[in-house]
């Protein structure tokens, strides 16, 4: 893809008023082979003093022509304006893309501009032995009109790739940096250059037409070497030359036509457009690529662009940036977040979150790149449910819910949560991020994102002893203390009340001894239904009577997960 800047030899005669009026009418062209591009071609004709254009994809659909009011000899198109030079009127004209004249730049003195190019905020033109410069508004810059004096005092054409200005001289093509450094008047020389009437490039090679030549020559754009004199043979001498990302276009010196060739290169349409006059120069559409950065990291993050075979090589964005690219250029945008930020995604003509995005410049395009702070932590939020007492604690420390129920943890770290039952409470299970752990008391959460978990605590079964008939009772089991088959039953009743179905255990433990003897162990709801319950005690456990001494009876109730606080009563068995 390229931008071509070209000039022709000035024509020395004035435009008749009648001819100017007739040039306002549309002229129908005769198209050659079809070229699939969305842009337009613009050309000037010094004989008629006109500026014309036609759609590249359908040139036979009609040519629109406007009067310039002078004798134009070269033209350049940006994404929103047309620029042309007139050696006879000694000025650079500016028009909108419909050809309506907006303003003129008139440097004065011995000015005779023969070629024009726009780079960023400046207009440059080849002008009678020097390169002139103005702002894109037409205002004179601080350095004055004469930006650079060419060594030979003659220059006929001009072009830029966004880093250098190239100009055509009698027997060479010169080059100078946009900052005015690195001037090389013989960048391409060695007898291969003769008053080039037009220069263009695709970012890899530079191309030009020598005066009166029926061929396009080329050389390496990096070194000016590897010259190919007959890179593209033309059917007749050419004058103006331009290039898009897919095609060459040139103006014939005679015959009133614009020809087309592909980049192979091979001529596809010797008479792509029949202009009905002799155009002196041609330019192709350029489209604006606008990139805006958004998000809190926009000011320090970057977006850069490079284009395949790019003229005016790419862009490097501040908060917002715009640059023109030739028709059908392929532009690759690359995002680079600043430290502490991450790329959140493309918008507009790009989408997704990839490192790069490719935009085809078949129209003006807008792209947005969003940069947000890098996420290094995620918040884990806990909720306690149910009416039972309990807490949820974390490892690493940070959460102890009730009191602290939300805290940040390092991204992708593992947090262990433990449900701690309160007095007379039952942990009923997890939900949320811990739902897979069900009623397990411990849950592990991976903090790949913000997460939330809940733990439910219900009241444990409550045992209330409403009557304990053996309190301070005396049990006599005869004279035998062990292995007694006969015994004196002394009946009493152990009563208790439950708030829910529960397993009940009644055990006897002799004071001073650790071993328990169990009178009763219920299973499920057996013997432990809600409400009043009773168990009869006769002074023995199974068939074994309790030995004389001080004893305690221990009554507990439990459900599947929680056991109540033991209810204890003491009694004495005498000999």
SSE layout and pairing:
Blueprint: E1 5-6, H1 17-22, E2 40-45, E3 50-55, E4 64-67, E5 74-77, E6 82-86, E7 91-95, E8 101-105, E9 113-119, E10 122-127, E11 130-135, E12 146-149, E13 157-160, E14 164-168, E15 173-177, E16 184-188, E17 198-201, E18 205-209, E19 215-220, E20 228-233, E21 238-243, E22 247-252, E23 257-262, E24 266-274, E25 281-284, E26 286-294, E27 302-307, E28 315-316, E29 320-326, E30 329-336, E31 341-348, E32 356-361, E33 365-373, E34 377-385, E35 390-395, E36 400-401, E37 406-410, E38 414-421, E39 425-432, E40 442-446, E41 451-459, E42 463-468, E43 474-476, E44 492-498, E45 503-510, E46 516-521, E47 531-537, E48 540-541, E49 544-545, E50 549-558, E51 567-574
Parallel strand pairs: 26-33, 34-41, 43-51
Antiparallel strand pairs: 1-17, 2-3, 2-25, 3-4, 5-6, 6-7, 7-8, 9-10, 10-11, 11-12, 13-14, 14-15, 15-16, 17-18, 18-19, 19-20, 21-22, 22-23, 23-24, 26-29, 27-28, 27-30, 30-32, 31-33, 34-37, 35-36, 35-38, 38-40, 39-41, 42-44, 44-47, 45-46, 45-50, 48-49, 50-51
Provide structural commentary:
This protein has 575 residues and is mainly beta. The protein is built from one helix and 51 strands. Strand 14 and strand 15 (173-177) form a beta hairpin. The longest helix is centred in the first third of the chain and has 6 residues, at 17-22.
Supply database-style keywords:
Immunoglobulin-like, mainly beta, 1 helix, 575 residues, 51 strands, 5-stranded mixed β-sheet, Neuraminidase
């Amino acid at each position: 893809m390229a931008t071509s800047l070209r000039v022709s030899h000035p024509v020395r005669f004035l435009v008749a008023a009648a001819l100017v009026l007739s040039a306002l009418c549309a002229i129908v062209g005769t198209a050659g082979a079809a070229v699939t591009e969305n842009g337009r071609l613009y050309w000037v004709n010094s004989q008629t003093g006109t500026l014309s254009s036609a759609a590249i994809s359908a040139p036979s659909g009609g040519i629109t022509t406007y009067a310039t009011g002078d004798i134009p000899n070269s033209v350049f198109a940006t994404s929103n304006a047309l620029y042309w030079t007139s050696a006879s009127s000694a000025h650079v004209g500016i028009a909108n893309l419909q050809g309506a004249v907006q303003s003129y730049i008139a440097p004065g003195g011995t000015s005779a501009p023969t070629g024009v190019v726009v780079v960023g905020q400046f207009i440059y033109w080849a002008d009678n032995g020097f390169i002139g410069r103005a702002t894109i508004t037409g205002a004179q810059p601080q350095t004055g009109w004469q930006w650079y004096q060419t060594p030979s005092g003659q220059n006929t054409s001009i072009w830029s790739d966004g880093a250098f200005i190239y100009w055509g001289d009698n027997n060479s093509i010169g080059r100078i940096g946009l900052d005015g450094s690195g001037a090389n008047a013989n960048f391409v020389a060695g007898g291969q250059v003769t008053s080039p009437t037009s220069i263009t490039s695709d970012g890899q090679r530079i191309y030009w037409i020598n005066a009166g030549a029926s061929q396009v020559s080329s050389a390496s754009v990096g070194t000016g070497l590897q010259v190919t004199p007959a890179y593209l043979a033309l059917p007749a001498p050419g004058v103006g030359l331009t290039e898009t990302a897919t095609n060459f276009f040139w103006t014939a010196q005679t015959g009133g036509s614009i020809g087309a060739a592909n980049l192979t290169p091979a001529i596809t349409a010797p008479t792509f457009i029949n202009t009905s006059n002799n155009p002196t120069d041609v330019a192709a559409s350029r489209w604006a690529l606008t990139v805006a950065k958004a998000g809190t990291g926009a000011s320090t993050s970057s977006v850069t662009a490079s284009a395949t075979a790019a003229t005016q090589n790419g862009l490097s964005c501040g908060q917002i940036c715009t640059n023109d690219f030739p028709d059908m250029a392929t532009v690759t945008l690359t995002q680079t977040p600043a430290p502490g930020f991450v790329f959140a995604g493309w918008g507009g003509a790009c989408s997704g979150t990839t490192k790069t995005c490719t935009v085809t410049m078949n129209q003006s395009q807008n792209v947005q790149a969003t940069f947000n702070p890098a996420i290094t932590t995620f918040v884990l939020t806990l909720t306690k449910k149910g009416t039972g007492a309990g807490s949820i604690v974390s490892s690493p420390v940070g959460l102890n819910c009730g009191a602290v129920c939300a805290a940040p943890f390092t991204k992708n770290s593992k947090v262990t949560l433990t449900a701690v039952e309160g007095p007379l409470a039952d942990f009923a299970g997890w939900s949320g991020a811990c739902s897979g752990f069900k009623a397990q008391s411990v849950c592990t959460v991976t903090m790949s994102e913000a997460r939330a978990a809940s733990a439910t605590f219900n009241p444990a079964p409550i045992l209330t002893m409403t009557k304990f008939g053996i309190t301070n009772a005396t049990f006599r089991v005869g004279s035998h203390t062990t292995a007694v088959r006969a015994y004196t039953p002394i009946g009493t009743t152990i009563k208790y009340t439950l708030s829910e179905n529960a397993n009940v255990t009644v055990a006897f433990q002799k004071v001073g001894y650790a071993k328990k003897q169990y009178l009763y162990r219920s299973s499920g709801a057996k013997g432990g239904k809600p409400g009043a319950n009773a168990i009869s005690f006769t002074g023995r456990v199974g068939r074994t009577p309790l030995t004389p001494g001080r004893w305690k009876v221990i009554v507990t109730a439990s459900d599947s997960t929680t056991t109540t606080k033991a209810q204890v009563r003491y009694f004495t068995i005498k000999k």
